[in-house]
Design goal:
heterodimer; A: 236 residues; alpha/beta; Rossmann fold; eight-stranded mixed sheet; 35% helix; B: 322 residues; alpha+beta; Phosphatase 2c, domain 1; six-stranded antiparallel sheet; five-stranded antiparallel sheet; globular; PPM-type phosphatase domain-containing protein (chain B); PPM-type_phosphatase-like_dom (chain B); PPM-type-like_dom_sf (chain B); vWFA_dom_sf (chain A); VWF_A (chain A)
């Protein structure tokens, strides 16, 4: 069916599935998409425009759910399981090619695509050399269709590292990152972060409905317990 | 006991379900809502009122002949319709239109209030109504080609700010803070009622992303401005809007309307799905609007359902002739 001119707001959930994520953490991560889907089901206006994709990464990165309408009745949500390693290079490179391919195809199909947003969830530091993941990230955000990147860190994730993958890192459209507070249960923290992601999808989608383009994130005082919000400059 | 019969000479009595006489009235309203392509889930959402704006109607519309005492008539249809997003979330329609006429010209305006600013429906009303009024006043002594559009936009920007201060009850609020509360795009058309060599000269000025089109000979939509977002990788909703003034002097567009053409002014709620005019929406509107439809039908056409297009929509269409 002719979709010419239809507006889309793409979100990519990128999840660290290194071995350290096993158990309750990966179980919590697997609940993120069902929660987003339930929220969209209650918001028919937004569900017409929001598209979600899921990529997981360890030593390699895999597209577990190509960008799609989560309410598509024929859809079965993937269940993530853990593998070895934490390669941010693999994650960023895969994300970059996936975003570029999706936008290219959607444009061919006549869609008007808004700037994508990426929720990047990790529980540890990258196993790649610093220069390598930084170069991969620079490639990702160097594209004209660069995404907004919102990192979520739990457990052993390093705030100083995640602060470097917030994008845009400054200016009027500056994004934020979310970190688990020390001593919290990481699976619980992922549940809280899922609420932040749902809130962002709903509010950003609504903002597009109102003629805005920006990705909206919840205010600091709207966060659930155990998770804190930071601007990248907090780490400088 | 049998039901009483109608008294002789009363054609309107229908108390008896078996009675098949002349009911005394005629007419029918059989409405199937328009869908163009996939209507989307939003097509079926319920509508809710805006508790902050009871007097802002969901839909307004007009249909009439318009012409000067010594010029042939033209046919006008106009409608401004609340989008499905505003209906669902209980927010007022923020679009507006206005029409003024003197002996030589009809002046048309559509405006789109900026959603992020909560009082934008006041801005849309001010810029269309006051803008048309002011243009008509200027045209008494000035040719359309010689209008000072920069001056007009400055006047309208000041009007928007003044209206904002009045609505907010804060006479000393700085301009920049008022502008966060209300803003609107605006598009004007001046159409000369007397044809020159069979063609009506048309003068257009847009500030922001409302767009003017001409359906040439009932066949294809000709955009009177660059197509929004065409050629860009990613879509943007950013647009110019009063009281923010353009950085460079506004440039009017001059064209002509032939006897078989239709002039169309729309806000982006309609301009976005119309795209470059060659798609399904362009075909739908060309088919429906080749000739003037009934005014209520015109509003129903404007309100067509199409997935992801849930913005307020406003259209003014003008046909040469009656």
């Amino acid at each position: 069916m002719d979709a010419t001119g239809a507006k889309l707001l793409p979100f990519y959930l990128v999840v660290d599935v290194s071995y350290s994520m096993s158990g309750k953490k990966i179980a919590s991560a697997n609940q993120i998409l069902p929660q987003v889907r339930d929220a969209l089901a209650e918001n028919p206006i937004l569900s017409d425009k929001v598209r979600i994709g899921l990529i997981d990464f360890s030593n390699d990165a895999q597209v577990q759910l190509p960008l799609c309408d989560l309410l598509d009745p024929s859809l079965t949500l993937p269940v993530l399981s853990v593998r070895g390693g934490t390669s941010y290079v693999a994650a960023f490179d895969r994300l970059r090619t996936e975003i570029a391919a999706n936008i290219k195809q959607l444009k061919v199909d006549g869609y008007r695509v808004h700037r994508p947003a990426v929720f990047f969830l990790s529980d540890g530091a990258p196993t790649d050399p610093d220069a390598d993941w930084q170069a991969a990230f620079a490639r990702l955000v160097g594209d004209p269709a660069y995404p907004n990147v919102i990192p979520f860190g739990v457990d052993e994730a390093d705030g100083a590292i995640l602060a470097r993958v917030v994008h845009p890192p400054s200016g009027t459209k500056q994004m934020r990152m979310y970190l688990m507070e020390n001593g919290q249960d990481p699976a619980q923290a992922i549940n809280t972060m899922a609420e932040i992601m749902v809130s962002s999808v709903i509010n950003s989608g609504r903002s597009v409905s109102q003629g805005e383009s920006g990705i909206l994130l919840p205010d600091k005082d709207e966060l659930g317990s155990g998770v804190t919000q930071h601007a990248p400059s907090d780490w400088v | 006991m049998t039901a009483p019969r109608p008294p002789a000479g009363d054609p309107g009595w229908r108390g008896d379900p078996g009675w098949r006489g002349d009911p005394g009235w005629r007419g029918e309203f059989r409405f199937v809502p328009y869908q163009v392509g996939d209507p989307g889930r939003a097509a079926t959402v319920p509508a809710h009122p805006d508790p902050q704006a009871w007097d802002q109607p969901d839909t307004i519309l007009d249909g009439y002949l318009i012409g000067g005492p010594d010029t042939p008539p033209m046919t006008l249809r106009a409608a401004s319709v609340r989008g499905r997003s505003h209906r669902f979330y209980g927010r007022a329609r923020q679009d507006a239109y206005a029409v003024r006429r003197d002996e030589r010209y009809v002046v048309l305006a559509v405006a789109d209030g900026v959603s992020a600013a909560p009082l934008s429906h006041y801005a849309a009303n001010v810029v269309t109504r006051h803008g048309c009024h002011e243009i008509r006043a200027q045209l008494a002594t000035t040719a359309p080609e010689a209008l000072n559009w920069s001056w007009l936009l400055r006047v309208l920007a000041a009007k928007v700010v003044a209206e904002g201060r009045r609505q907010l009850g804060q006479p000393d609020l700085p301009d920049s803070e008022v502008a966060t509360q209300l803003a609107a795009t605006v598009l004007f058309a001046i159409v000369e009622l007397a044809p020159r060599d069979g063609y009506h000269p048309v003068h257009l000025l847009a500030h922001g992303d409302s767009s003017a089109w001409i359906l040439r000979a009932g066949q294809h939509w000709e955009a009177q401005q660059p197509i929004k977002n065409e050629g860009t990788d990613l879509a943007s909703s950013a647009t110019a809007a009063l009281p923010y003034l353009p950085d460079t002097p506004p440039v009017p567009v001059h064209t002509v309307l032939a006897p078989a053409d239709v002039l169309l002014l729309v806000t982006d709620g309609l301009g976005d799905p119309l795209g470059n005019g060659t798609g399904t929406v362009g075909g739908f509107l060309a088919e429906q609007w080749r000739r003037p439809p009934e005014p209520l039908a015109f509003a129903a056409h404007v309100d067509f359902a199409r997935k992801s297009h849930d913005d307020d929509r406003t259209a003014i269409a003008l046909w040469p002739g009656a």
